Amino acid sequence: GQQLNQSPQSMFIQEGEDVSMNCTSSSIFNTWLWYKQDPGEGPVLLIALYKAGELTSNGRLTAQFGITRKDSFLNISASIPSDVGIYFCAGQRFPSNTGKLIFGQGTTLQVKP
Amino acid sequence: GAVVSQHPSWVICKSGTSVKIECRSLDFQATTMFWYRQFPKQSLMLMATSNEGSKATYEQGVEKDKFLINHASLTLSTLTVTSAHPEDSSFYICSARELGGNTEAFFGQGTRLTVV
Which residues of A touch B (CB under 8 A)? Predict the structure, then answer.
């Protein structure tokens, strides 16, 4: 099925460093979501974006809905060991309102203490 | 945030038997629930969309007779893997969208199915 292009695929960083990951699509989206998944668990919603240009923060996390509506990024500042996990972007294609989401391939984050 | 409970969290079954997985929205009503399958180190693959009171909509390539979905109430959807085979072993995850809410979906904890 269709997927979003998410990058990077994996990151190995030092504790305290900032992290950035992004998702792009050739289609326009009306919703962008960012999730974190720990091993053996379901994804947990981090940030939801609904408007082009919207910039939203959740603690050390910041995400933006791209102006073109075809991309989004997630930044994590001052990473800590518990940030380890897989981060997924997900979006709902315009003009759908079914709640059906398309997922990125995921970014695996590892943090070295 | 809204809570979605999935049960069981893991199950081992013999080849040829059927397994039922439940997905419940605990503190909200969900007209729509989604079922995903996830292979190791891969993303979530949507299997079907479950609508309360109507037939589920399956994604291309997903066998509806193999993966039976029932959404009998606004808080419960079930996925039954019929005549399971080892290749059905996977991590199955459900999500629920709140009635009248925004697009974001809240996920269950997932069910690890192992068919032996």
Answer: 1, 3, 30-31, 33, 35, 40-45, 48, 50, 88, 92, 97-101, 103-106, 108
